[in-house]
Amino acid sequence: MPLIQFPQGGIFMQVGFVGAEASGKTTLFELLSNTQGAYLSPDKANTAAVDVPDERVDKLVEIYHPQKTIYAKITFVDINRLSPGDRENNNKSLNHLKLMDALAIVINGYAPDYSSKEMLKELNFCLSELILSDLDQVIRKLERLNKSNKPTSITGMPEKKIFEKLTATLEENKCLSTLDLAQEVWKELQSYSFLTRKPMFVVVNLSEDHGIAGPKGLAEFEKSAAEQNLEVVRIYAKLEKDLQELPPDEQAVFAEEYKLPLDGKNKFINEAYETAGLISFLTVGKDEVRAWTIKKDCTVREAAGTIHNDLMNFFVRAEVISYEKLIKCGSEQEAKKRGLLRAEKKEYPVKDGDILHILSSK
Ligand SMILES: Nc1nc2c(ncn2[C@@H]2O[C@H](COP(=O)(O)OP(=O)(O)OP(=O)(O)O)[C@@H](O)[C@H]2O)c(=O)[nH]1
Ligand SMILES: [Mg+2]
Question: Which fold has domain 4-275?
Fold first, then answer.
């Protein structure tokens, strides 16, 4: 996955928004980034990097009083709308999403006359556009392979065969994530950055006018999305964005009146991490309390590598305690006294919320 490496260590995830006209992409972008989105064209995208809110970091800051507090970062990319039949511009817009770690398909769930049928139509339209974008790329390559009389292979398999399989899948209107190829083959194809291989989820942009149940047919829509392995997050993007613009003391008062779950930002970020298979670990100290993003199943040595290459190359061991255990003890000294700081070797798979002290020989 193209997780971006910070020059000063650490990685951050990037999520791109896809959607039909006026589904609420820019409204969602403005809510999540707390910035103003620009008027877009296929050549232009809105991009913003923000801190990932993390109560664990806030609590650890109360314990350690560090000089610096660093949250994990997430980047949002809002592109121009996808329009039916406008393949050239749609492809241009979608090109901004090639390096994303996950895609959020934004569906209009606020229009008064929308029901499951219209929402499903929008979802299938977006999926088809992603499929067509990959198909354009695959067909161009297949044409080149057909013209060449020099047979090429990928991990021992004829390249032409592989591209015929990719084409057949996409022509059946299926995402490449449904195609079963060996991991080594996908690795060799990484430079194509296929959109339909990316982790995806759906955001339904709801209006407060429909109340907590949402528009007619929302449950049915969610069921259809689940059949395509897509999780659905319900967000009141416009209402939450409007509330965010109020003075802080008024926000809670007004939000209370709606009796709706207005936690769109947390829900979105949690789903993005979950869908992309990412977790966070934490480092603590008097100098800095920090949250770091890593892939699930990372070993502690690999996790050390996201902090600094030397910590990976000269890794000796890690002292590990879960966030919950540390909080229960109230302090690191107390956790040590109770023998709760474990020494782990390089293969230890890091868990979400682990607090790590890496020991290296350099
Ligand atoms: N009433 C209501 N209006 C909304 C809601 N979400 C978005 N809108 C309005 O719908 C219009 C389009 O919203 P945008 O966020 O610009 O949608 P978009 O998907 O970025 O649109 P394009 O980029 O033009 O395709 C704006 O006028 C929004 O204020 C909502 O939940 N309720
Ligand atoms: Mg927009």
Answer: Rossmann fold (3.40.50)
pLDDT at residue 52 greater than cutoff 60: yes
- Spans of all domains in the chain: 4-275, 297-360
Specify the residue with its C-alpha closest to ligand 1, atom 27. 22
Predicted confidence at residue 148, as pLDDT, reads 87
| 90 CB within 6 A, ligand 1 | no
Dihedral sign, Cα of residue 327, residue 333, residue 337, residue 342: positive
Is the minimum distance from the CB of 19 to ligand 1 under 6 angstroms?
yes
Q: What is the CATH number of domain 297-360?
A: 3.10.20.30
User: Residue 287: is it exposed, middle or buried by C-beta count within 10 angstroms (0-12/13-18/19+)?
Assistant: exposed
115-134: per-residue pLDDT in tens?
999 999 999 999 999 999 99
- Whether residue 232 contacts residue 214, with contact meaning beta carbons closer than 8 Å, is answered with no
Distance 237 CA to ligand 1 centre (A): 9
What is the amino acid identity at position 49?
Answer: A
